[in-house]
Amino acid sequence: MNIEDVDWIARAGAKPKGKRPDFLNDPALDRMLSILMAVAGEVSVIRQRLDTVERLLDRKGSITRADIDAYVPDKDAADQRGLMAKEYVARIMRGVQQDMEAMQAVERPVEDISVDLRDG
Amino acid sequence: MKQDVPPPYTAVTRHAVFPNPTHDEAARYDFLTALNKYLSGSIGPGNKLAYETRVLPKFRAEQGRDPKDRFEIRHAMNKDPWHRFWSALKRNSMEMRQQNGRAITLRQIEELAAKVRQFNEGRDTLRLDASVPVPRYQAAVDIHCMPGSYHGEEFPGDFSAGANYDSGLFATTAGGLGALSDGGGQALVEWIRKERPGWIPKRILDLGCTVGHNVVPLALAFPDTEVIAIDTAAAVLRYAHARAQSLGATNIRFVQMDAEDMAAFPDGHFDWVQTTMYLHELSGKSLPNIIEEAARVLAPAGLMFHLEQPQYTDEMPLYEQFIRDWDAFNNNEPFWSAMHAMDLKEIMAEKGLPRDRQFVTGVRAVVDREIFPEAAAAAEEDHGRAAVWNAYGAWKPEA
Fold first, then answer.
1. Complex ipTM, two decimals?
2. Which of A89, B65, B218, B361 is spaced 20 to 30 Å from A69 by Cα?
């Protein structure tokens, strides 16, 4: 193949050689998670782009697409954006994190507690 | 509280052949950096919790004993729903990093090719040899889920494997290796200057150099030294050569060669032979052969130096061995587990570097702390990607 014929969209997602482990109980779940994580990534990208637009508008009043690609956050802006991504990841991972916390103590079903409280 | 926030991808140094990301491509890496830090730092301890609160008690109840090795722990943990989900997330993060790096690189491949050509054409410091086969250990699977591994080519003369590798290092290590992802190489320079002040090696050999990010700092620190960097993969060498030239490291010759057969070099040719994060990507058979060849081409009183993650020892808890093994089975690092259990000291001793000439020392990435964070605390370490290593080395006996 010649360099000008490389289909960069198709080849970017080439499968690496080596059998992929089965992580979840159903292959469909593994695939759904791949899609969900990619979409989660794109939402984060859009949030950062919007933040860039807002910062540039604050600074200059009007902007071009080239301004967006050329934008380099200073230390404060980078910290704020890093924090935004960190907070975003923590929010979408809440369920996994709460499952982790749930392992720290044995908890009885609330239904049992409801019976306790009714009777006691 | 003060939140720990990694540097943005825009802090990466864009040298002359670096694949330039668009705003959104950089933001995509920023997401992955935040995700990786979350998985290894914020919820990484969930794995140990799962082990201690339910996996180990269940194992004891069923077997009437404790797990005897890291493999038994892995088999037991692979049944735990929380660990499985965490692994699935981490695997996706690795795959997404590859897709983003390849998209950035291949989207601008023609522009990059023109730049790479400027640095490579007509230079005798890049010597490719198409007769060097892809070693079996490299052909078996694509290492760290990198499609095509180091040697894959999309078109004749391709260098994109190297460009993609260079592009993603900063994101996967959360900037822990510095703006040029060369904190390992910088650490080597700092180490040798303390260890042997004033020593100027005549010749240095770097084995498995990939994109040369760790050998460039050495070449720049010793501008009068003849540096040779070898790799079996032409695709990374083309990029490594252009990258090194663009950074002013013109005293490195990049040579396509298998370290198991370095007949081209006479005995005792180099004062310093070294590898960085290389031995774990070999095989049980090739590793001792390579150490033997490396010891042969090393001059008497010369330095052999290997930077790796710490070896597994009897003192290392089995759980820690298990979690350090994650990449071996989930991120296509098939020799990682076996290599870390090998007795490197014994192998070096057998190959002519006796134990009383050996040393092991801890090494941390040397980076600009104004911009880049300290490596994470041990409990939050992302083992395959951490910016802290052990150096396994030896000074070869005088003749």
1. 0.93
2. A89
